[in-house]
Every structure is written in structure tokens, then in C-alpha cells.
Specification:
The protein is an all-alpha fold. About 70% of the residues lie in helices and about 0% in strands.
Length: about 150
């Protein structure tokens, strides 16, 4: 454990409220256009990655310049709608992913520092209880439940 404090910020509640409101507005605005998937559905889909995005865009271009190769059974309008949707949503997904990753990293760092400090406090309470400090007994009795080792089923 280290006592080095790597993060020391306080986000004003007004900022939290504003960001929460704006994220909710984004979610509400996009909700009619977004589709949720089950885990099974996600696993069964043919995935479009970074390389295939470029491939789809290249094929879109070829479809415009060489339409004679478009299969008659291919729904061109749906292809164009799908490709456009990917193009529109990718920057939003990238931004949301960056925001989520930065927020998760900050929560992890602050959480790590908070639990380390809490463990220091608990250690002091435990030591005080062992030494017979009367006021430590009820605090220790309450906290020890959170630190007792539970046997794991094999």
C-alpha cells in the first residue's frame, strides 16, 4: 500500500448535475434510433471492425461507379441506411467510450485511494480494540463484519 495521493479533485455538484442531464438528453434523443441486443444476439452477429468499415465504404463507392455488379436480391437502400448509421454513430460511440474509460479510470483511482485510507482507519480501530480502548469496541464490532474472511465453497 502506498500513501501517495494521485488524485485530489472535487467535482462541483452543479457539474455532475449538468453532465447527468446532458447525458440523459443524449440518451433520450437517440433512444428511438438505437437497438439493444441480447448476449446471444451479439455473439451471433457478423461483426464490423475498423478494417471492415473501410471495406464497406470502398464497396459503397464501387457500387456507385460499377452498379452492374450489385446483386438483384441486395436491398441497396437498406445497405446505404446501415452504412450511413455506422458512419453517424461511430464518432458518438468513440466519444462515449473515451468518456466512460476516463470516468472508470478516475473512479478506480479514487476508489483505490479511498479503500486504502479506510483500511488504515480499520487497522487503527482493530489495534485500539486489541489494546482495550473502550470506545473502539463498538466501531470494531461493526467493521469487523466487513473484513471477516468467509470460507469459499469448493
Amino acid at each position: 500500500m502506498t500513501n501517495q495521493n494521485q488524485i485530489s479533485v472535487e467535482i462541483p455538484q452543479t457539474v455532475i448535475d449538468t453532465v447527468t442531464q446532458k447525458l440523459q438528453e443524449c440518451k433520450t434523443a437517440l433512444a428511438p434510433y438505437l437497438q439493444g441486443l441480447t448476449l446471444e444476439e451479439r455473439m451471433s452477429l457478423f461483426k464490423m471492425g475498423n478494417k471492415t468499415v473501410a471495406t464497406v465504404q470502398k464497396i459503397k463507392s464501387y457500387m456507385e461507379t460499377n452498379p452492374e455488379f450489385i446483386p438483384g436480391y441486395m436491398n441497396q437502400s437498406e445497405f446505404h441506411k446501415d452504412e450511413k448509421l455506422v458512419t453517424q454513430l461511430n464518432p458518438i460511440v468513440n466519444l462515449a467510450t473515451q468518456l466512460a474509460a476516463d470516468a472508470e479510470d478516475t473512479v478506480m483511482l479514487a476508489g483505490s485511494e479511498a479503500i486504502q485510507a479506510a483500511l488504515l482507519y480499520y487497522g487503527t480501530v482493530r489495534e485500539a480494540n486489541l489494546r482495550g480502548v473502550v470506545s473502539a469496541k463498538p466501531v470494531y464490532a461493526d467493521l469487523v463484519q466487513r473484513f471477516s474472511k468467509r470460507s469459499r465453497p469448493i
